[in-house]
Amino acid sequence: MTEHGAYPVEPAVDAATARFWDELYQERDQVWSGRANAVLAQVVAPLPPGAALDLGCGEGGDAIWLAGRGWQVTAVDVSATALGRLSAAAARADLASRITVARHDLTRTFPAGRYDLVSAQFLQSPLELPREAVLRAAARAVAPGGRLLVVEHGEPPSWARESHPHARFASPEEILAALDLDPDGWHTERLGAVRRTGTGPDGETGTLVDHVVLVRRREQR
């Protein structure tokens, strides 16, 4: 992070995209709960720590949880506001040495490296996003023996008053197919939908549906 609070960009972000997400985060002092996403925690709990890539990390609940369990995390987001909150939270938790913060507009650039875990949690956007291309890049970033975990919203939350008539949520099978993985090189460890209880923006309690894809790259022979 520079002295002016701007994160290095590789090589650029779309100004309108960055402004949209910064304004969303600036509406409140904290947008997300700060807790790790439930599926991520369940999947990762039994795994030995390694190198992780957190795509669309937001304010860093997942990144900090992973770092606290010994993972070395590269946390990526387009919002400088969100990344600033992550850095501050990591410092408070004495975990800054385990988290590398990087600003990327995933429509333009993707972080380098290979990772034991690549996590794409709710990488869905009201803005234009080449989601399938981003997820394929995520798969390419998985090291041999490593895993790609994709979790997406499966339907609007139960408290949603309105939904776009053309809104459509990809099924777990469609998400997996879009990854276009070589079946000889990958093993599907989890594929399906889970329901959980969530809290809406006005304090409503309701049901959320998550679509989950967990794949593991086979070890090289």
Question: How would the blueprint of this fold be written?
Answer:
Elements lengths: L14 H12 L11 H7 L6 E5 L5 H8 L3 E6 L2 H13 L6 E5 L11 E7 L9 H10 L1 E12 L18 H8 L6 E14 L5 E13 L4
Parallel strand pairs: 1-2, 1-4, 2-3, 4-5
Antiparallel strand pairs: 5-7, 6-7
- CATH architecture call: 3-Layer(aba) Sandwich
Q: State the helical fraction.
A: 25-40%
**Regions with little confidence, pLDDT below 50 for 5+ residues:** 1-5
N-to-C CA distance = 40 Å
Description:
- The structure is a single chain.
- The protein is built from 6 helices and 7 strands; from the N terminus they run ααβαβαββαβαββ.
- The chain is α/β, with parallel strands linked by helices and 221 residues long.
- The longest helix has 13 residues, at 80-92.
- The N and C termini lie far apart (40 Å).
- Mean pLDDT is 87; it is low at 1-5.
Summary keywords:
221 residues; alpha/beta; Rossmann fold; 7-stranded mixed beta sheet; 7 strands; globular; disordered N terminus
Quick rundown:
The protein is α/β, with parallel strands linked by helices and 221 residues long. The protein has helices spanning 15-26, 38-44, 61-68, 80-92, 131-140, 172-179; strands at residues 51-55, 72-77, 99-103, 115-121, 142-153, 186-199, 205-217.
